Amino acid sequence: MSDDNPIKRWTAKRKATVVMDIFKGKTTAAEVARQYDLTVSEVEGWIDEAQRSMENGFKARPKDIREQYESELRETKEALGEAHLQIYVSGPV
User: Fold this and answer.
1) Are residues 85 and 50 in the same domain?
2) The CATH number of the domain where 5 resides is what?
3) Rg from Cα positions in the chain
4) pLDDT tens for residues 9-57?
């Protein structure tokens, strides 16, 4: 990147591109820091954040699954309650 047009704002997309280049071995955190006038610790922070995000992406999203099960359980309980009510109202068979 030329010094005439420095990056003033690092968007998530720009950070992801740089971090992917580091993951692929095309560059290093030190080279990126030098090239874009950043600190190595700042670039390493992006790398850590990317790794955490990737790990979370591979998890089974327990919160989402729990919400789904709770919703299905709620619907099942409502259906069961309606069935009990119908049996009670209609009397013995």
Assistant:
1) no
2) 1.10.10
3) 27
4) 899 999 999 999 999 999 999 999 999 999 999 999 999 999 988 887 7
